[in-house]
Write a structure and sequence with these properties.
alpha/beta, Four Helix Bundle (Hemerythrin (Met), subunit A), RNA-binding
Length: about 450
RNA sequence: GGCGGCGUGGCCGAGUGGUUUAGGCAAGGGCCUGCAAAGCCCUGUACAGGAGUUCGAUUCUCCUCGCCGCCUCCA
């Protein structure tokens, strides 16, 4: 079984499944208050890769990822644009899934919406109030962190050091600066649900607790998300579930951030680039490759240069895919697949896994050049196996050739056949000017887009 | 102020106490080709600086410098 870094333990640990052969995982999804940014894309890709890899390994994965469709920023946008919060949420959820589709990120098994779980959230909060672990104030309901054993587990800090470092605004009625809102009382004009403490809306942290436990059950296997969520979001999820007597996730995993010029990219810093824009400019697979070529916990710089390098690398893989398309389909080279598996099982070491991919690509090319099609086929099968396991398709198909391009190619072939090389080179220049590359292969001339 | 991370060859980016190399992109040389393209082969004296532990450190310890993150909404 795979080993992953566990944020609660601060080290890599075996992922021990609750039920043999089945994986229950929850990943915090987006708040749909705007277009997704590049960082969201990395998050989605990292967990998609993990999910696909586990499925490839024969596990039955139940992947739950939520949509936060009620939140302060959604309300702010709705008010600013003079429309309903629901309207805003629906629009940006659609944008989210459009981007996910382009990236090749599989749809979650279930994608719960916060607004559909308000009743259960109210129930959870009521239980915490009744148990004396949460208290009401004039603006909502707060959880008392002093009532939670081990608060600070995910922050990896003691309650005291968290308290001394707190920069939270002092709210007079809060018993501790670290206490956080379970319920926010509605201000005039805000969307609101009824509750024993007055109309309002649930706090962000509560939804994930209710939805993950409802859809995955007590003690589910894995809870993931961006590293920025470790504290306070996940800390507070854990705090609530522990306070309410639940057995929460068995394993916490977090992905590192995307950096822009060495800085974290985030909405609040305003230095973000939307995923929508990025995907309009580059092959979405290139972004997947950038993500795969960095370790999921390390920060990664997403720039024109890194995307460009990945695009070129992808072109090489696509060329390989085309070249081996005619090889017989045979069993994948077992040793190569095992090396891939070892890399992936070692805390999802995708950079090493990708190195294995290029290793088999090279091995297949070498075998083929050496006149060993059987060996080439086994390595090519391994390459497809590995690429498929991480959600990367190797462009096996050829480009559609428009008639005018085909005519130029045919004219060049005729010129070459007549040993009119000057004419042939002129035609190749014209093709290149039109964005096409010609390759003379033993099997005939091949044209492809640049 | 508290907690944590990082600094690897032109760029991106893994990894390891020592015999043989991560890998990708870029670059140079060769093979192949009418010439190319694609592919294959070869090449580059990389581990921030200092001290220490060790037979031996890029890999462990300490210090210095630089960068970054979390402690507030945030993937």
């Amino acid at each position: 079984m795979i080993r992953l870094h566990d944020t609660a333990l601060g080290r890599v640990a075996d992922v021990e499944l609750r039920d043999a052969g089945k994986v229950s995982m929850y990943v915090c999804g987006p708040t749909v208050d705007g277009l997704p940014h590049v960082g969201h894309g990395r998050m989605a890709l990292v967990w998609d890769v993990l999910r696909r890899y586990l499925e490839w390994g024969g596990l039955d994965v139940r992947f739950v990822s939520n949509i936060t469709d009620i939140d302060d920023k959604i309300i702010a946008r709705a008010n600013a644009e003079g429309r309903s919060a629901t309207d805003v949420a629906v629009q940006y959820e659609e944008a989210w899934y459009d981007s996910m589709k382009a990236l090749g990120v599989k749809r979650p098994t279930v994608d719960p919406h916060a607004t559909a779980y308000v009743d259960q959230m109210v129930e959870l909060i009521a239980g915490l109030v009744a148990a004396g672990k949460a208290y009401t104030t004039s603006d909502g309901v707060y959880l008392s962190v002093d009532a939670v054993p081990g608060y600070g587990l995910l922050a990896r800090q003691s309650l005291d050091s968290l308290r001394s470092g707190a920069r939270v605004d002092v709210v007079e009625e809060k018993r501790s600066p670290l206490d956080f809102a379970l319920w926010k009382a509605a201000k005039p004009g805000e969307p609101a649900w009824d509750a024993p403490w007055g109309a309002g809306r649930p706090g962000w942290h509560t939804e994930c607790v209710v939805m993950s436990l409802d859809l995955l059950g007590e003690g589910f296997d894995l809870h993931g998300g961006g590293i920025d969520l470790a504290f306070p979001h996940h800390e507070n999820e854990r705090a609530q579930s522990v306070a309410a007597g639940h057995d929460f996730t068995r394993h916490w995993a977090h992905n590192g951030h995307v950096q822009m010029a060495g800085e974290k990219m985030s909405k609040s810093l305003g230095n973000f680039r939307t995923l929508t824009d990025l995907l309009a400019e580059v092959d979405p697979r290139a972004y997947r490759l950038v993500v795969l070529q960095s370790h999921y916990r390390a920060p990664v710089e997403v720039t024109g240069a890194t995307l460009d390098a990945a695009t070129r690398a992808l072109a090489g893989l696509d060329g390989f895919g085309r070249r081996v398309a005619d090889l017989p389909s045979v069993a994948a080279d077992a040793a190569a697949v095992e090396r891939f598996r070892a890399a992936m099982d070692d805390d999802l070491d995708t950079p090493r896994a990708m190195a294995e991919l290029w290793g088999v690509v090279k091995a297949a090319n070498t075998a083929r050049d050496a006149g060993d099609p059987a060996g080439a086929a086994a390595f090519a099968a391994a390459a497809r196996e590995i690429a498929g396991a991480v959600g990367l398709s190797l462009g096996a198909g050829s480009d559609e050739i428009p008639a005018d391009i085909a005519a130029l190619v045919a004219a060049r072939d005729a010129a070459r056949a007549g040993r009119d090389f000057a004419g042939a080179d002129g035609l190749r220049d014209r093709l290149e000017a039109l964005g096409w590359v010609v390759e003379d292969t033993p099997g005939g001339t091949r044209a492809r887009r640049q």
